[in-house]
C-alpha cells in the first residue's frame, strides 16, 4: 500500500493495544481527558488476535483493572492453589483468589473495546514501520499513513519497533518461552479438580533457569491445559526442546502431536533505559517480572506510571522524561521487580538447593511469595528478613525431596 504524505498531528500516539497500551490510554483519559482528546492508539493486528501467553491474571492485576473501571467478563478459570513440584515432591500453597486464567485474545479484545467505548481512537491493522525524530516531534510511519506526535509510547511488545527505531540500547538478552495446549477431562485433571496451577522446578539442576508449567484454561468452551516451559539461562548447553519433551512425556503427552508456540520475553532490568526525549516504553517493551515471567499486572502498572508522567509533561511543557526511570524504580513495580530479580538469581542459579529448600520448609516465605503477586504483601519490605532466613537456613538446611525418574 502506498504511504500517504498527509501528516495527522496528535499529542500522544500509543503503539500497541495490549494491556500496557490500553492502561496508558485509559489512565491518561482518567487523569486528564483533554490530553486524551488528542491521543491515538495504533494496533498492527485486528482484535481478537492471538497472543502466546499462559494468561495468569493475578489479584494485583484485578486491583489495577478496578481502578480503570474494567470488570473481568471474559471466560476464565479461577485458581486458589499454587503447586510447586520438584521430582516426586509436591508443595501446595492455598490462597483463595490467587489468580484467574484467561485467554489473552479475548481479554485484549475486551480491553481494546473499552478504549473505543471511552472515545479514544484505536486504529487496527495499522502496523508501524518506522519512527524518526523531527525537532520536538516524533514522526510515526505506518503502512498506510504518517503521523506526528509530541509523545510516543512504545507498548508494542518484546520486539518493539519503537525500542529499535528510537535509539534504545539492546538491554538484557531475550529469554525464550514455549507452550502447547492440550484438551483434558476436567473431572480427571488435578489442575481443574483442585483449581490450581503447577510450577515444576525438577529440571533446574539440569541447567534450566526456570520451570515447566501446567495452567488450566477454557478454549471455545472446552477444557484444556496450557503447558509450557520458561528459561532464563540462554545457555547453549540447555536443550529447551528436549527438556520440555521429557517433561511432557512424564505427563503422558507427546510434544510432536501438538502445535508448539514460542515467543521471547524481556526481563526487567533496573539498569536499563526506559525513556528518551518524547518517547516512553511500557510493558514487555520495557521489561517484565523475571521470576515467573508474569506480564499483565506489570503492563497495567507501567501504563499507570507512564500516564502520570505524560500528563505532567504537558502541564510543564517538558518532554525529556528524565524522571520516568526514577518513578518506575521507586514504585511498587520497580521495587518488587528488583526483588524478583534477586530471588530468581538465587532460585534458578547455583544456590538453587539452598533457596528452594528454604521455600519448601518455610511457610512464611511460601505465603509471602503468593501474597506478593496478589498485592497483599511485598518482597521489598521483607528483604532483610528474607536474607536472615537464608543465612539461618544455610546452617541447618533441611533436605529437599528426592527426584525420582
Let me know the largest β-sheet: 8 strands, mixed
In terms of quaternary structure, what is this?
A: single chain
- In CATH, the architecture of the largest domain is 3-Layer(bba) Sandwich
Structural class: alpha/beta
Number of strands: 16
Whole-angstrom Rg: 22 Å
CATH superfamily of the largest domain: FAD/NAD(P)-binding domain
**Contiguous runs where pLDDT drops below 50 for at least 5 residues:** none
Order of helices and strands: EHHEEHEEHEEEEHEHEEEHEEEHHHHHH
Could you tell me the mean pLDDT? 92
Distance between the termini: 57 Å
Provide the domain count.
2
Describe the secondary-structure layout.
Layout lengths: L6 E9 L3 H13 L1 H4 L2 E4 L13 E3 H9 L8 E11 L2 E14 L1 H14 L4 E2 L4 E7 L2 E6 L3 E9 L6 H5 L9 E9 L6 H4 L2 E5 L9 E10 L2 E10 L8 H11 L10 E5 L9 E2 L2 E3 L14 H21 L7 H7 L1 H16 L4 H10 L1 H12 L8 H13 L10
Parallel strand pairs: 1-2, 1-9, 2-6, 4-11, 9-16
Antiparallel strand pairs: 3-5, 4-5, 7-8, 8-9, 10-13, 10-14, 11-12, 12-13, 15-16
Helix pairs in contact: 1-4, 1-8, 3-8, 9-10
Walk me through this protein's architecture.
There is one protein chain. This protein has about 400 residues and is an alpha/beta fold. It folds into two domains: about 5-55 and about 105-170 and about 265-335, FAD/NAD(P)-binding domain; about 75-100 and about 175-265, D-Amino Acid Oxidase, Chain A, domain 2. The protein is about 35% helix and about 25% strand. The protein contains 13 helices and 16 strands. The chain has helices at about 20-30, 35, 60-65, 105-115, 160-165, 190-195, 240-250, 295-315, 325-330, 330-345, 350-360, 365-375, 385-395, and strands spanning about 5-15, 40, 55-60, 75-85, 90-100, 120-125, 130-135, 135-140, 145-155, 175-185, 195-200, 210-220, 220-230, 260-265, 275, 280. The strands form two sheets. Strands 1, 2, 6, 7, 8, 9, 15 and 16 form an eight-stranded mixed sheet that branches. Strand 15 (about 275) and strand 16 form a beta hairpin. The longest helix has 21 residues, at about 295-315. The model has no long low-confidence stretch (mean pLDDT about 90).
